[in-house]
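User: What would this chain look like folded?
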Amino acid sequence: MRNKGLEIIQGFILMEMNNEWGKIYKDLGAKPVINATGSVTLLGGSTPVKEVREAMELGDSSYVVLADLEKYAGRRIADLLSVPAAYITSGAGSALTLASAAFMTGHKDENIEKLPNTDGMPNEILIQKRQRYWYDRCMEFSGARLIDVGDEYKTSVSDFEKLISEKTAAIHYPVYEQNPTDENVLSLEIVIDIAKKHDIPLSVDSAGQIYPLENLGKYVRMGADFQCVAAKYMGAPHSTGFALGTEDIISKIAKNSFIGYETNRIRGIGRPHKIDRQEIIGVVTAVERWMTLNHEERLSSFEYMTNKIIKGINNKNGINTQKIDNIMGHQPFGLLVDIDQNISMINNEILVEKLKDESPSIWTRINEGDSKICIHVFGLEKGQEEIVSETINRIMKQNLR
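Assistant: Here's the prediction, encoded as structure tokens.
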């Protein structure tokens, strides 16, 4: 009886999805998908929460001087996160680009207008080679050069000391606190000491470090000059983020931004990094909500969806599951999926493609450096976890040896 009831519920979900779900995309000819990958730009990043959508709609009620709005919005976020200053940007990547520009130009208008030509400026940003990552490219868009410190095996303090010169504009450090500690990378504390010793700004990419709450502003409080956060992870629009930092670096970011381009009439590289007044309001609302949210309930809901997928997958069809117990950062819980090819005729890569070809299309992925399918529940709507597990079961049953 219980199984029959589940079939009825799933039937209603599918009927609703077929009739209304993604209709606006279908009408354009685009294909809506179930996002079992997480908060990724490839699939649209995030969905603003109800409170944020309502606040953004109120933002339509009048116009406002954006320089003033940025100032007061930044002040509100800085107060909430106990840091000296903040500035809302068009995503964490934008914050990285504007920060690298700020490290090089300082407050000099003529330097701001020269970028990406960096002649006569310090233009080297040091980063440990073992910490190179996909989004460090954002630091280079302003004209900065990323300089590898150490090698692919290890970094030492002396490696930094050898490379620091009058050309050094900053040191950059990405943070992933949910990952195991890499003993061959110098800790943030040591790198902060190096930066302070040489009076060099320190930049921290903490885009996804939105939980525990203490991570919001933590690295600035530790001594970094700047850290970025992706507001999309907190229920703000996908195209938003913010910079946290010292008053000095935030003021330089403001001068390099699209606000500086228009308000101060400085032709800087930040002009394309535009953000509208509604989005600024949405970010403030998202941060306020995030700091007062019941995170135990939030995490419990993600764990519940994860457990439902695991419970719904039939292991007899040659598929093994492993729960991801992580609660830190922006994508808590989820699961890893691995196929036993003694039982199944398909492998993990084929399953990923078959799920995409389904109707509705389900997107998952195999993370770089791994062999298992990673399913995240961050982007799933209520009820879609059942569709994910049932679709996997059907595909696997059709491909038994």
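Confidence is low (pLDDT under 50) at residues 1-12. If you want, I can go into more detail on any region.
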